[in-house]
Amino acid sequence: MLYAITLYYTSPKDELEKSIDAHKKWLADNIKKGSVIFAGPLDDGTGGFILAYGLDSTDMEDILAYDPFVNLGLVKTEIKAIEPGICSSHFYAEWAGNAKVL
């Protein structure tokens, strides 16, 4: 299952900057483990976005709990499960599930 995760900043920028390196390390570690597909800041500066892969929502919540931004209460999270319906042939098959490949 894929998960669209939006992080909304709830803390001042200086508080976020204190934990940015730890947050980036958490992202890098989870990319290497295969849990995070990609991540980046939102263009409007209000937070960030993570596309993640996991077995179920509880699994994803457990993984997110270790993100310093989350466990320090610096962000509010919104997690949406996504079941791909169609996808590009370039999209990794494991993430696509039963999606029709175009």
TrEMBL record:
- Entry-linked SUPFAM superfamilies: Dimeric alpha+beta barrel (SSF54909)
The record's section on Pfam families has: YCII
Domain of life the protein comes from: Bacteria
Domain YCII-related stretches: 1-77
Give the protein family. Belongs to the YciI family.
What is the protein's given name? Answer: YCII-related protein
